[in-house]
Amino acid sequence: MEPNTTIDAKGLACPQPILKTKKAIKDMESGEVLELHATDKGAQSDVTAWAKAGGHELLDHTEDNGVYTFWIQKG
């Protein structure tokens, strides 16, 4: 999946990954994809809830050696 924007929020604690994602997605066009990398364990539930509440679609997410990667399509 080729993202339009990538955010590196590794090493940041809640709520920083969400705040960085919110700021980046605001400048994107509807339908574009944002890729987020985070290490905060709470990011999985936070990103899922934030995307749903904001009308965005969480396309996929993975975890590899403590790094969570999310692909979010702007609604």
Automatic annotation (TrEMBL):
Signal sequence range: none
InterPro entries with a match to the protein in the record: TusA-like, TusA-like_sf
Domain of life: Bacteria
Pfam family for this entry, one: TusA
Domain UPF0033 as annotated: residue spans: 7-31
SUPFAM superfamilies with a match to the protein in the record: SirA-like
Family in the record: Belongs to the sulfur carrier protein TusA family.
Protein name: UPF0033 protein YrkI
Annotated source species: Marinococcus halophilus
